[in-house]
């Protein structure tokens, strides 16, 4: 709960005295890692869709980026659960430049945001 409050503050906080404008992209590029085999995979996910990355289902709620610098950073709202199970492993914002700030905690798999898809 504390992480969610921190993430909300970071997304809403003004920078250098001026509010930074953000835009929502039509999707996100995510990277998955199987820690056992060392295999990685990059997956493009449209906003509102769910994709399978190894043994995980990943749903993208939104992907936001700075309007002035679309390649500068990405903030993606993800919901992640194991295939065939109802319990969520992760539900919140991930930041591309700071993946450890709010990361998926899974013994075998890892998922992180690479960038937003821009129009």
Automatic annotation (TrEMBL):
InterPro entries: DUF2155. Residues 1-18 form the signal peptide. Pfam families: DUF2155. Keywords: Signal. It comes from the Bacteria. This is DUF2155 domain-containing protein.
